[in-house]
């Protein structure tokens, strides 16, 4: 096969490219230029997408004896990842830009260009693997437990995208093995530190970066009953689950710490409450995809005859962050009721074009067995069955597990982008 | 076997030049040393200087060797500006908007750090300096210098150097000409009246990389960029005798057969242009075939990325260029094409094909066989900025 190896300049993608070469494929290395104004040098272990990273990728390609090119996707990346990141925060949501990049850049813009230019597949250094079933259908699976499994950030890929994806590191037992292999292959990036941060915020200061792009506006911090308990300099700099930096003037009646429960960008309010109010028993999103065959075709669930394409409840696990543990859950696909109970809390948002799904739109609804903490609208919920990634949704709304949620104002509505 | 059609980037060193270079490298001695070894090296250097001067019709004392074309341009632009400013002529620079990056960046540096001002002069749709604009700029007030290309390095358009230099001379403004793309392709001698400095480079004519020269006419002063020994007029640093010898040999080869080589390249270039018109109707030619370097052809494919075209042709065994500089491989739409009035999106679909003295008709025909398919494939891949269908 003719394989495009996406080479970031890191050790994983270099070894992935090397393995694709070893497997006998006709491999071309491509470094994606995602920034118009790349820095010259990495600063410490942070960030990526510098000229130095591009040179590292080139050096690895030279070592492997494969052709190497730099493709500019900076404009696409700005529109689909950076602007999306800003818009999501501005809407009070918590996006995952790496996921967006896989969904819309690596396995969309890059893959489409690659296919048009005669490639058969795009290979990356992600830790996840693809299994092909007896009838030729592709499934996405977790990497081994010890490896830094990255199937979560690939959960957005559809069958069409998976059909041309290649993850040569998928079955590697652990990262140390990849570094050892890089070293044995004479790749200079063998000991290069991992990048942990958002690549377009190289200094790691997401708050500061956002503050430069979303004009902060002072507003109020309220409790769940709407009583003002403090003020803030800009609602969009808060994330659901955050505790620090609230500087509340009024102590909670019980004296216990309070957490951000909700960010309401329209009214510029931040809602706070006790930790238990963060616990979520249900989450749902209308923007969902299946990573391969859908659950009914996979024999995991049965169709729900009450609506076309609806899926009856089935057992699964759900993971809501890249490094979170998956938790047992039940999922179903049902027509949305149009608004969550109590969605009127920030009803002006729901009326926007980016509001909650209108009645009749299908929604992936996930009910967790034990209450789940740290779930914010905008995050992606990836559904697993065993090691298999079944699909995902972007979380539009959550339902609190707290007793207080009997009050109708407690579901967290959010805008869908 | 790769068919090399990127001679405007660098032209391969002919065997005879390579042999001369190696021979010269065997000569021990620093040309500035007083002993006999030093004198041997000095003899090589002086001989080379005289031979290069002869190709331009200037005196040897007017040739200062540099570490390449970029240094020559920087020395001319910065050195002349500093020198003219010291003499009370201010620090206003006149430069066409379609200059090479060596000039653009040197001028911009002077603006940013030395308080210089610049008038970027417009070019026409072929990338040629508009003399009416130059005239108006000269009439509008005193200027420290005019710097301009002899031939555009991307699209190949020859510039009205003699006319511009005459206008500048009448206004008492010295002129630097960046002749790096033109030297060895078209005759430059006699250097037109009014031209005070000319930059040239060895590797564009089959000499070594890292060797260039700035012609500084008598009476032209430049403030040096480099200090430390004053070995040459306007430049310090140990002189590269072997590099100079190889440069001289390469440029003599180019100049001995200048007309024949130009005719050969022009015939093939025109054959290529005609073939493209016939077989690649999606392409638009940017090069003015009547008044340009003989071996350069620039084209655009609207709706395609130049890097897609380059990739596909590279895979098919052809070394060509998108023609414009890139930072970390991020292609900027060429400022030359933008100055010519081409839209930024169309400028992204650029391809520059530049022929050498040994290019054959068979090679051009092979390229013509590969181009239609590559063009259609690159068009199918589209512009990188377009919204993909997948992942929505």
Automatic annotation (TrEMBL), chain A:
GO CC entries: cytoplasm
Xref: PANTHER family: MITOCHONDRIAL TRNA-SPECIFIC 2-THIOURIDYLASE 1, TRNA 5-METHYLAMINOMETHYL-2-THIOURIDYLATE -METHYLTRANSFERASE
Catalytic residues (UniProt): 101 (nucleophile), 199 (cysteine persulfide intermediate)
Species of origin: Microcella pacifica
Site entry: Interaction with tRNA: 126, 379
GO biological process, one term: tRNA wobble position uridine thiolation
Lineage: Bacteria, Bacillati, Actinomycetota, Actinomycetes, Micrococcales
Domain of life: Bacteria
Keywords, sorted A to Z: ATP-binding, Cytoplasm, Disulfide bond, Nucleotide-binding, RNA-binding, Transferase, tRNA processing, tRNA-binding
Binding positions (ATP): 6-13, 32, 125
Domain tRNA-specific 2-thiouridylase MnmA-like C-terminal: 363-395
Similarity-based family: Belongs to the MnmA/TRMU family.
Function: Catalyzes the 2-thiolation of uridine at the wobble position (U34) of tRNA, leading to the formation of s(2)U34.
Span of domain tRNA-specific 2-thiouridylase MnmA-like central: 209-273
Protein localization: Cytoplasm
Substrates-to-products reaction catalysed: S-sulfanyl-L-cysteinyl-[protein] + uridine(34) in tRNA + AH2 + ATP = 2-thiouridine(34) in tRNA + L-cysteinyl-[protein] + A + AMP + diphosphate + H(+)
Enzyme's top EC category: transferase
MF annotations from Gene Ontology: ATP binding; tRNA binding; tRNA-uridine 2-sulfurtransferase activity
InterPro entries in alphabetical order: MnmA-like, MnmA-like_C, MnmA-like_central, MnmA-like_central_sf, Rossmann-like_a/b/a_fold
Keyword tRNA-binding belongs to the record: yes
Region annotated Interaction with tRNA, chain positions: 148-150
EC number: 2.8.1.13
Name the UniProt record assigns to this protein: tRNA-specific 2-thiouridylase MnmA
Automatic annotation (TrEMBL), chain B:
Recorded coiled-coil stretches: none
Presence of keyword Coiled coil: no
Keywords: Iron, Iron-sulfur, Metal-binding, Pyridoxal phosphate, Transferase
Reactions this protein catalyses: (sulfur carrier)-H + L-cysteine = (sulfur carrier)-SH + L-alanine
GO MF entry, a single one: metal ion binding
Domain Aminotransferase class V residues, every copy: 3-367
This protein's record includes keyword ATP-binding: no
Cofactor(s) listed in the protein's UniProt record: pyridoxal 5'-phosphate
Similarity comment: family membership: Belongs to the class-V pyridoxal-phosphate-dependent aminotransferase family. NifS/IscS subfamily.
Protein name stated in the entry: Cysteine desulfurase
Species whose genome carries this gene: Microcella pacifica
């Amino acid at each position: 096969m003719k394989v495009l190896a996406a080479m970031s300049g890191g050790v994983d993608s270099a070894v992935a490219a090397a393995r694709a070469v070893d497997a006998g494929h006709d491999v071309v290395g491509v470094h994606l230029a995602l920034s118009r104004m790349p820095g010259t040098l990495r600063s410490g272990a942070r960030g990526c997408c510098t000229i130095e990273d591009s040179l590292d990728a080139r050096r690895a390609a030279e070592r492997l004896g494969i052709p190497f090119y730099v493709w500019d996707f900076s404009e696409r990346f700005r529109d689909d990842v950076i602007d999306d990141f800003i818009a999501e925060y501005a809407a009070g949501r918590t996006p995952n830009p790496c996921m967006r990049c896989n969904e819309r850049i690596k396995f969309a813009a890059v893959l489409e260009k690659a296919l048009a230019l005669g490639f058969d597949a795009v290979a990356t250094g992600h830790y996840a693997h693809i299994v092909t079933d007896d009838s030729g259908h592709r499934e996405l699976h977790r990497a081994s437990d010890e490896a830094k499994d990255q199937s979560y950030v690939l959960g957005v890929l559809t069958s069409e995208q998976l059909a041309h994806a290649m993850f040569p590191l998928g079955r590697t037992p652990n990262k140390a093995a990849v570094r050892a292999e890089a070293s044995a292959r004479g790749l200079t990036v063998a000991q290069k530190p991992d990048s942990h941060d958002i690549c377009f915020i190289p200094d790691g200061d997401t708050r500061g970066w956002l503050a430069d792009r979303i004009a902060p506006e002072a507003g109020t911090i309220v409790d769940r009953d709407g009583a003002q308990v403090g003020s803030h300099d800009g609602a969009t700099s808060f994330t659901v689950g955050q505790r620090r930096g609230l500087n509340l003037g009024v102590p909670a009646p019980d004296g216990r710490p309070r957490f951000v429960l909700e960010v309401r960008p329209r009214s510029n309010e931040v809602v706070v409450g006790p930790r238990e109010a963060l616990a979520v028993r249900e989450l749902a999103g209308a923007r969902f995809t299946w990573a391969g065959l859908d659950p009914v075709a996979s024999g995991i669930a049965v169709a729900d005859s009450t609506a076309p394409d609806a899926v009856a409840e089935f057992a699964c696990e759900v993971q809501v962050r890249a490094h979170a543990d998956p938790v047992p859950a039940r999922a179903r696909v049902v027509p949305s009721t149009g608004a969550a109970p109590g969605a009127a809390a920030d009803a002006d948002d729901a009326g926007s074009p980016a509001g909650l799904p209108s009645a009749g739109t299908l929604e992936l609804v996930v009910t967790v067995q034990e209450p789940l903490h740290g779930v914010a609208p905008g995050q992606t919920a990836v559904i697993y069955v065993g090691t298999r990634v079944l699909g995902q949704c972007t979380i539009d709304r959550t339902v609190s597990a707290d007793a207080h949620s009997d009050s109708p104002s407690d579901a967290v509505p959010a805008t869908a982008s | 076997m790769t068919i090399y059609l990127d001679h405007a980037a660098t032209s391969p060193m002919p065997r005879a030049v390579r042999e001369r270079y190696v021979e010269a490298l065997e000569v021990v001695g620093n040309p500035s040393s007083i002993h006999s070894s030093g004198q041997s090296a000095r003899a090589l250097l002086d001989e080379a200087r005289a031979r290069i001067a002869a190709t331009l019709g200037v005196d040897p004392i007017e040739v200062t060797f540099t570490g390449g074309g970029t240094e020559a341009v920087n020395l001319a632009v910065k050195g002349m500006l500093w020198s003219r400013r010291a003499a009370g002529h201010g620090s206003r620079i006149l430069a066409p908007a379609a200059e090479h990056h060596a000039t653009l960046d040197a001028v911009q540096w002077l603006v940013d750090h030395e308080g210089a001002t610049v008038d970027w002069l417009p070019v026409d749709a072929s990338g040629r300096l508009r003399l009416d604009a130059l005239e108006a700029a000269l009439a509008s007030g005193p200027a420290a210098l005019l710097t301009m290309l002899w031939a555009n390095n991307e699209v190949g358009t020859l510039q009205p150097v003699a006319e511009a230099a005459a206008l500048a001379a009448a206004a008492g403004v010295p002129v630097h000409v960046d002749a790096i793309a033109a030297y060895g392709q078209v005759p430059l001698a006699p250097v037109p009246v009014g031209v005070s400095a000319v930059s040239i480079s060895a590797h564009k004519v089959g000499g070594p990389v890292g060797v260039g020269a700035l012609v500084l006419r008598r009476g032209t002063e430049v403030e040096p960029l480099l200090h430390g020994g004053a070995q040459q007029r306007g430049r310090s640093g140990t002189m590269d005798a072997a590099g100079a010898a190889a440069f001289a040999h390469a440029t003599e080869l180019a100049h001995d057969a200048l007309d024949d080589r130009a005719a050969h390249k022009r015939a093939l270039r025109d054959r290529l242009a005609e073939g493209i018109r016939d077989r690649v109707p999606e392409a638009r030619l940017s090069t003015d075939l009547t008044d340009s370097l003989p071996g350069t052809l620039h084209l655009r494919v609207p709706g395609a990325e130049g890097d897609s075209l380059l990739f596909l042709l590279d895979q098919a065994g052809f070394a060509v260029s998108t023609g414009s500089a890139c930072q970390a491989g991020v292609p900027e739409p060429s400022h030359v094409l933008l100055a010519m009035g081409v839209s930024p999106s169309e400028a992204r679909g650029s391809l520059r094909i530049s022929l050498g003295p040994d290019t054959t008709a068979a090679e051009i025909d092979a390229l013509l066989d590969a181009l239609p398919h590559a063009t259609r494939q690159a068009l199918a891949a589209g512009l990188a900025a377009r919204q993909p269908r997948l992942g929505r």
